[in-house]
Design brief:
Layout: H1 2-29, H2 36-43, H3 63-72, H4 84-95, H5 106-115, H6 122-138, H7 141-151, E1 153-155, E2 158-159, H8 161-169, H9 178-187, H10 201-216
Antiparallel strand pairs: 1-2
Helix pairs in contact: 1-6, 3-9, 3-10, 5-6, 5-7, 9-10
């Protein structure tokens, strides 16, 4: 009985792994038609219309990827999907009595938004890390940032930078300025509470911090490799 159960479990896990690898391979070349978070919004019954429009990275202002990298994951171009150094630092700070802060990379956030659910359980974080490693192994950095910017949540029912840019600023993503890009990046940690159109004092503080980090990263030159 136990042997049969373990065999069935092994086959189920193998099937899930194959499905995940197939999906990652497919989305390397095909734009995802939706995401787990978008499906969750549609199934929530909130009545809030879902807004999302896919655009290529070439049709997004170069300030926007720089803003999210400066805000969310400054080692994006260097790590392999999971920043183990940042995780060790976060754990050390937690043991020292500081609050437990997130150490998710942009690749992990892409994996979570695309395939998983929100939450802080160990199982979800483990799945997120495994998927992120697979994504980084198969997708180039350019594709990761492109997918992330097209599926990230920027507000109630607002997914992707094109929809967010038009909703908050009335311009396409290709025309986002540096400060507009920083305002969008500033709301990503909690897009259902923070607002890019009418920023609170806290959001403005984040905007100024993000702009400072963008400058410290050498500005647009930092992500120049994504466009070569």
């Amino acid at each position: 009985m136990i042997r049969t159960f373990l065999r069935t479990l092994a086959w189920a896990l193998a099937g899930l792994l194959l499905l995940a690898v197939t999906a990652i391979l497919l989305f390397r070349f095909v734009n995802p038609p939706t995401s787990a978070f978008m499906l969750g919004h549609l199934l929530s019954g909130s009545g809030q219309e879902l807004q999302q429009e896919w655009v290529s990275l070439d049709d997004i202002s170069p300030w926007m990827p720089l803003a999210v990298v400066a805000s969310e994951d400054q080692r994006f171009v260097h790590h392999h999907g999971v920043d183990f150094g940042a995780i060790r630092t976060a754990l050390a700070e937690y043991r020292a009595g500081q609050g437990l802060r997130g150490a998710s990379t942009i690749t992990q956030q892409t994996a979570k938004n695309l395939f998983l659910w929100n939450g802080r359980s160990f199982v979800r974080k483990a799945l997120e890390a495994g998927l992120a490693l697979g994504i980084d192994a198969i997708w180039p950095k350019r594709r990761i940032i492109e997918v992330y910017l097209n599926i990230a949540e920027f507000g109630h029912g607002i997914y992707g930078v094109e929809a967010a840019s038009r909703f908050y600023f009335g311009v396409p993503a290709s025309r986002l300025s540096q400060i507009q890009s920083a305002r969008l990046a500033a709301v990503l940690p909690n897009p259902k509470v923070l607002n890019a159109a009418t920023p609170s004092a806290y959001v403005w503080e984040r905007v100024e911090w993000i702009r400072g980090q963008m400058a410290q990263l050498s500005g647009l030159r930092y992500l120049q490799g994504l466009y070569n």
